TrEMBL record:
<dbReference type="Pfam" id="PF00571">
    <property type="entry name" value="CBS"/>
</dbReference>
<dbReference type="InterPro" id="IPR051257">
    <property type="entry name" value="Diverse_CBS-Domain"/>
</dbReference>
<dbReference type="InterPro" id="IPR000644">
    <property type="entry name" value="CBS_dom"/>
</dbReference>
<feature type="domain" description="CBS">
    <location>
        <begin position="74"/>
        <end position="129"/>
    </location>
</feature>
<dbReference type="InterPro" id="IPR046342">
    <property type="entry name" value="CBS_dom_sf"/>
</dbReference>
<feature type="domain" description="CBS">
    <location>
        <begin position="8"/>
        <end position="66"/>
    </location>
</feature>
<protein>
    <submittedName>
        <fullName>CBS domain-containing protein</fullName>
    </submittedName>
</protein>
<keyword id="KW-0129">CBS domain</keyword>
């Protein structure tokens, strides 16, 4: 069994509630990531905003990225998995919940983010596909 913590991204990108979606999208582009956690300011997370959220909840609804706060488009609650659970368990959760990103928890604290891309890199990375 391969634990989630072996394949997750340890770099946690986050913004505070109230951050405009344009800034979040620029961060995603610049950092080459598909998700950013949304902090409520109390060392906890209110949700996650993904590239899909931006398309489905901002662009498709005709909202202005310059004025729309991230909480209008984020996914909440942030679904998470324990760091020692298997990548198979993570894949099952993502499939059942129709999501592509999970927070990773250890001792009650978010320590990383796992994406479908991380799972694919784990499965196919050695073959040069990802």
């Amino acid at each position: 069994m391969v634990p989630v913590k072996m394949v997750m991204s340890k770099k946690i990108l986050k913004v505070r509630r109230g951050t405009k979606v344009k800034k979040v999208a620029e961060m995603m582009r610049d950092k080459r990531v598909g998700s950013i956690l949304v902090s409520d300011g109390n060392n906890s997370y209110a949700g996650i905003v993904t590239d899909a959220d931006v398309v489905r909840r901002l662009v498709a609804d005709g909202l202005d990225p310059e004025t729309t706060p991230v909480e209008k488009v984020m996914t909440t609650p942030l679904l998470a998995i324990e760091a020692d659970r298997s990548v198979v368990d993570a894949n099952d959760i993502m499939d059942q919940e129709h999501i592509r990103h999970l927070g990773v928890i250890e001792n009650g604290k978010i320590i990383g983010v796992l994406s479908v891309r991380d799972l694919l890199r784990h499965v196919y990375g050695g073959w040069g596909f990802v």
